[in-house]
Design goal:
Largest sheet: none
Distance between the termini: 31 Å
Helix content: 55-70%
Structural class: mainly alpha
Shape: elongated
Order of helices and strands: HH
Length: 96
């Protein structure tokens, strides 16, 4: 019997475990959603500031909250990006 004749055996997933899909597309989708949320948060904050400047909205409290949320969303996305880049660099330094 030759080694090439033996079929690879895939490990069985535990009962009730979710089926694996392609990890790259999941990560890509999560990243796109996060970027979209940050962009919509930024756009909402800019619109609120614009309305305040033109006199349409007098609620300064909600404007400050929207701008602070947009800032925090961006900072979180930036930190996630930094961790992804750091992980990539760590993987590239590994010796095989």
């Amino acid at each position: 019997m030759r080694i090439n004749d033996i079929l690879p055996v895939a490990p069985l997933a535990p009962a009730g475990a979710p089926a694996k899909s392609s990890g790259a597309s999941d990560f890509q989708g999560i990243l796109k959603d996060a970027i979209h949320r940050v962009e919509s948060s930024r756009a909402s904050a800019n619109e609120a500031v614009e309305q305040f400047v033109t006199g349409e909205n007098q609620d300064l409290h909600s404007i400050v909250l929207k701008t602070q949320r947009a800032s925090l969303d961006f900072d979180l996305l930036l930190q996630v990006r930094n961790k992804v880049v750091q992980s990539y660099q760590e993987i590239m330094r590994m010796q095989l």
